[in-house]
Structure formats: C-alpha cells, structure tokens
Amino acid sequence: MKLQQHWQNLIALSDNQIGLALLALLAGLASALVITLFRLAIEWPLMVSFGLDNPEHLEQLSQWTRVALLLSGGVLLIVIFQRLPPAQRSIGVTHVLQRMELHQGYMPRSNMLLQWLAAVIAIVSGHSGGREGPAIHLGAGTASQLGQAAGLAHHRLRILAGAGVASAISASFNTPMAGVIFAMEVVLLEYSIRGFIPIILASVAGAIVSRVVFGSATAFDVPALDMHSLLEVPFILLLGLLAGIVAAGFIRLMKQLQRLNSLPLLVKWGGLTLTTVLLSLYLPEVLGIGYDTVNDALAGKVVVGMLAGLLLAKLFLGAWAAAVGFPVGLIGPTLFIGAALGGLFGQLLANLFSSLPLSVGFYAMLGMGALMGATLRAPLAALVALLELTANPNIIMPGMLVIVVAGLVVSEGFRLPSVFEAQLGGGHNYQLPQPVQQMLRNTWVAEVMQQSFVSTPVEITTEAAGFMLQREPDWLLLEQENLILPPSALAEALQQQSEEPRIERINLLEIPAEREPVARISLKANLQDALDLMQQHDLQWLAVYRDDDLTRCAGLVSRTHIDHFYQYQPRGR
Fold first, then answer.
1. pLDDT tier at 1 (50, 70, 90 boundaries)?
2. Residue 71 burial (CB < 10 Å; 0-12/13-18/19+)?
3. Residue 422 to residues 105, 243, 256, 276, 429, Cα–Cα distance (Å)
C-alpha cells in the first residue's frame, strides 16, 4: 500500500513532469504496438488468404471476389452492431473527442475492442475508408487504459490520451511531428508547455515502432517535388479555392446524409455497402484505403477521366460513411480526394500551359494538404504532414498558401465547422470548450485547495478545542456531517465556557456559527470538475479526498479560490 501511494504521489497525483513524461513514453510504445497489430490484422489476411502482393491492390481480385467480400463484410458488421446498445456503438475520432470533452479522457475498453474488430472487418472486406480514424481511437484508448490503471488525475489523463493519439498518427504515417501537432490541434484543442514534452515522447515512440516493423518509408511514395517558378503562385491560390469548395461540399454532403440515421442499420449501412459494390464494378480503385492510387496520382500516372471519377466516388462514399458512423476513418478519404483533385488540377494545367515546367505530383501533394487542413480544421497539422512526407522545406510556402486559402473558404466562405464537429452535431453531444473552461480542465484541484483546516468530531472536549485553536486553522471540518465552520465560533464558545466551568464538552452543531455545507470530490479532479459539482449542488465549498483514503480530507476548495485562480493566473502555462 505504501509503494502504491508513493507511486501515486510521484506520478499520478502530482504535477511531476518527469513522471508524466515516462508514463507518456510507455503509453506511446503501447499505443504503437496496438496500431502495428491493427495494421497487420488488415494486411495479413489480404496478402496471405488472397495472394495480393500489396494489401491495397484490391483491384487485382476478381470482380465476384470483390463483391463477395464487400457483401459478407457489410452483413457481418450489421449483425455485430445490431446486437449492441447505442452507447457501445460509439467509436472513431468523434468518440475520442466526446470522451475528452465530457469524460476527462476516460475511454471504455469495450468500445476500443469494438473499434479494432469493426475496422478490420470493414477495411479487409474492401469498404472505402481510412485506417487513421480507428487508429486514433485505439491509440487514445490504449493510453487512457494505462492512465486509468495508474490512477492519473483527470488533467494528466487527458494529456496521456492525447499522447496516445500522437503515437497513433506517427505510427500510421511515419510522421512524428504531424502526430504531435494533430493531437494538440484537433484532440486537446490547445498548445501548452506541460503537454508538449509527453506528447513528443509518445510520438517519437510511435515512429520508432513503426520504423522497426514497417521500415523508414512514409505512408506515400512521394517523388521529388518543387515549385519551379513564382508564376505558379496564382495556380496555387486557385487550387486552394477549389480545395476549399470541395472540402465544404464534403462536409455539407455528410450533413445531408446524416438524415439516414433515422433509418435502421440494415438500410443505412446496407445501402452504403451496395453502393460501394456498384461503384467498384466501374472503379475498383475506390475500394479500401486507396493509398496505392494516391501514389499513382503523385507520380502523374492516373488519367484525367479516372481521377475525376475517383474524386466523386470517394467523396460520396466517404461522406456517407462519416454521416452514418460506419467503422472506418475519414482522414484517408480526405487525403485521397485531395490527391485526386490536385492531380486533376495539375494535369489540366500541364495541358493548358505546356511551356511551363509544371509537376503534377506537386499539385497532388498540395491538394492532399489543403483537403486535410480544411476538412479537419487542422491547418498546422496538415502543413507539418506535407513537410514530413516530402522531406522538402520548399513545400512550406506553397503549402501555407493552399492550406490557408482552403481553410478560409470553408470557415468564412461557407461558415462550416470541422467535419468532426459536424459529425457530432453540437449541442449536448459536443461543444468546443471556452478558453476559461479549457484552463480549468487543465488545472489540478490540488493547485488551489486550502490545507489550513482541522478535522473534528461533532462533540469535543474543551481541552481538545484549545489545542485546535492553537494550530490557527482557517476552518473546522465536520467530516461526518459534511460541514465546515469558522474557528472564531469555537473561540467564542470557549470564552463562554470559561464563565460556566461546569461545561466540559462542546457540541459544534449547537454553538452559534455560520456553517457551510460541503460535498466530497476526488483528488484526481480538475477545477472544472469542482466548479461543475458546486453548481450542481449549489455549494460554495468542497472537501477533497484521495480515492484510496476516504477517511482523511486532503484539503478544501471554494468557489472563491477558483474565481481568483482564473482571474489572476498567468497565461501561457
């Protein structure tokens, strides 16, 4: 018990950065191993059972094999999910955002296991979607489970779950910097000094595991790309405008397709499977993750007509899957759509301006960054991903232009939120936290709790009362009654007792005093937890207890303490 308490004091219930950094490193390794097993569970069946040289070459399968795979996978998923209550069906990035926003990063193990199984079935059977969304859920869930086992305080558990997300992105794309930025920009919704170190370590751990298992290559085969002339700047701005329009179209189409959610699972998921079957008869490249087609677009090997068809097909299937909560990710489809748009745009430019040395792959890569940044509302993560995928700093300036223009078109031109916010629908499901709320969530309750108090039974001797007052506490805590009272009331009672020497015991419930009710809160809590509990029970005070010792109060927190903290706390922590 002493060893466990020492562990909690050092790492779980403290603000010790070294302890959290070590735990994040462990969480990064564990998350990356889970993601590695997830990828292998997708790739091995396709390569071993169907003899594919590349697990993404589903178009090499016969037409009837592809149809049989899609139908069997769709039916199996419907049977599995039909038997589950709605709460257990929650998976994907939106599940992670909800748990971070409403549950302090506590991720249920059952939803995580469902995400693993469902995503493997969906992708192996050829349904159009990405693996990164499920990977984010698996990474955050693995880190959260580790943090829960360690008994982490709430504000640190959120950081650890964010570290799992960074490891997942890093292991999926082999882009550790983009993993860090994505976790902080999309999931944690903040950049903080205390969060950077553990999340960086977790992301590095994810990249190391990925490189050991899958090699040092990134997720895409990117040729040498560059902007050959400043004359291309207008083309880049135009691509940003087009990417913003396509991204807005994707989000709006998804919102329209969310009307299908009132229909039975058999209709909305079965319809998606049948539509995928029909489209795959003409465009088999639309099946699965599709990164092999992205690589061909980067190399300029896909003709204009096919690029246009794939763009529309992937956009429709991706929006439908996102709208009805199908267990695949939407990050992969946005990259596919961006590559198709950029490749199409580049080929048209090359035909119109044959005298200019234009690179089709250059515009395909910019299209990927623009669609990712605008759709996910993650401009910096998209820019860093471009930099890491190309290993070329010359991509930064054109990347900035195209990502910013596309993002402005979506946010200011069409007034649309990110695709994840649109999926959740706002309201009680999910709302972006306000700055003060964000700061309170990231602040441990111990940072403001008052420890100048004395716990006392209701009835005490005059001698014990004298000893209590000698300690000069600010408050007296009646733990059994969940009340506090000022020591001045006890001092007045003692003064009256000196005039009546027959009284040897004092009942603290009977003496004149202004008593304040208190509720109990865990030492794991943050200030937002404390404020929510106060508002729920209309209280001004809370008594803080360790979960493993409910008999001894660790401190007192008042609404005044919280108000003073967020009014005078220096920013930039």
1. very low
2. middle
3. 21, 18, 11, 23, 11
